[in-house]
Design brief:
This protein is α/β, with parallel strands linked by helices. It contains ten helices and 19 strands. The strands form three sheets. Strands 6-5-4-3-2-1-14-15 form an eight-stranded mixed sheet. It has a seven-stranded mixed sheet with strand order 7-8-9-10-11-12-13. It has a four-stranded mixed sheet with strand order 18-16-17-19.
Length: 358
């Protein structure tokens, strides 16, 4: 009997091993020693609104940029515009200016900058190396010195922060022509960009083309719309959605020129003009730009030229000019190329004839 009992016990143990039963209480699973949180996806920093004010200062330039608590002023109009500059800054509740840029030494850009230098603190003051003996420029220098500051000459690709926007100096060359010493600034605000060109002429524009950094949503048209600026090659790289011309009404120079207006039409840019619409205000949220003007918001600012000859234009293969069919300077037959519309001629790199103005 004892022998049979031992055998029974052994059989029971073997059966337990194969059936998975246990002689002890089951052990509960361990709690995790720490909680694993889901991975946090980095988000872009918040973007504050950027406001760009193109002031109506007649045949001159004055632009104020505001983002968060930062302020930049690019040019200040003529000396006679000083009171308007101060009044506008007060309207915006600007206690100080972080950056002041005099694009070049002509009075219609530097004249009104002495006014804010006289009444409020100004941080960095930038101007080209090329100076002027004019009273306006010399007063500007004196006012900078009175703030125990000095004029800085920017270097290419220098970056300046304006709140959540950044301003990059693209050019500040030396030249015997003060217009072509203009500081060119590109301001980027998330996905929006603004290009400020002073009075830069074609010579300076050519220094920047081919470098793939000109594309901008807004172009401040150089030199008040003079035909010495805003070349086709420059416009092809900027390709602005909006163009702003700061210009005096019925000015003696005939600005803006029909040639520049034509080029801007070809580029498809929506035009704004201070002579017709007063102060122009652009607001950027980083993705979209909204525009308001102090008057005549819906006025026609760049009337489309009438169609001509069912759109037929004659190009000169050698000069790369295109003409109306009745132009008295048409090329010889062997040098001709025919375009069925104006846009085709422009897209092929041809420029309008100065005589027939197609």
């Amino acid at each position: 009997m004892k022998k049979n009992g031992v055998i029974a016990v052994l059989l029971t143990c073997v059966l337990c091993l194969f059936s998975g039963c246990s002689l002890t209480q089951p052990v509960p699973p361990k709690e995790p020693s720490h909680t694993i949180s889901p991975t946090t996806v980095p988000t872009d920093p918040p973007v504050s609104e950027l406001t760009v004010h193109f002031l109506d200062v007649g045949q001159a330039d004055a632009i104020i940029l505001r983002c968060e608590d930062d302020t930049m002023i690019i040019d200040g109009g003529n000396t006679a515009d000083s009171s308007k500059i101060i009044a506008y800054l007060k309207k915006l509740n600007v206690p100080h200016i972080d950056y002041m840029i005099c694009t070049h030494a002509h009075e219609d850009h530097v004249g009104g900058l002495s006014a804010p230098l006289s009444v409020m603190p100004v941080g960095g003051v930038y101007a080209p190396k090329a100076e002027s003996d004019s009273r306006a420029y010399q007063t500007f220098k004196q006012k900078v010195a009175a703030q125990n500051s000095e004029i800085m000459h920017p270097v290419n690709y220098e970056l300046l922060g304006i709140g959540s926007a950044k301003a990059e100096i693209l050019a500040s060359p030396n030249s015997d022509n003060l217009n072509n010493t203009s500081i060119i600034v590109k301001v980027t605000h998330k996905n929006n960009s603004f290009l400020f060109t002073g009075d830069a002429e074609t010579e300076e524009e050519q220094l920047l083309t081919g470098k793939n950094f000109l594309n901008s949503d807004v172009l401040k048209v150089a030199h008040h719309g003079s035909d010495t600026s805003t070349s086709y090659s420059f416009l092809r790289e900027v390709m602005p959605e909006y163009a702003v011309i700061s210009v005096g009404k019925n000015n003696q120079y005939g600005h803006p020129s029909e040639a520049v207006l034509s080029r801007l039409r070809d580029a498809g840019a929506q035009m704004y003009r201070t002579d017709l619409q007063g102060d122009i205000i652009m607001k950027s949220d980083g993705d979209t730009i909204t525009v308001t003007t102090s008057k005549n918001e819906d006025i026609q600012t760049n009337e489309t030229a009438p169609e001509y000859d069912a759109g037929i234009y004659i190009g000169n293969r050698r000069s790369k000019k295109f003409h109306r069919t009745d132009c008295n300077t048409l090329p010889s037959e062997k040098n001709r190329i025919e375009f069925i519309n104006r846009s085709d001629a422009v897209n092929e790199g041809y420029t309008p004839c100065g005589n027939c103005r197609p």
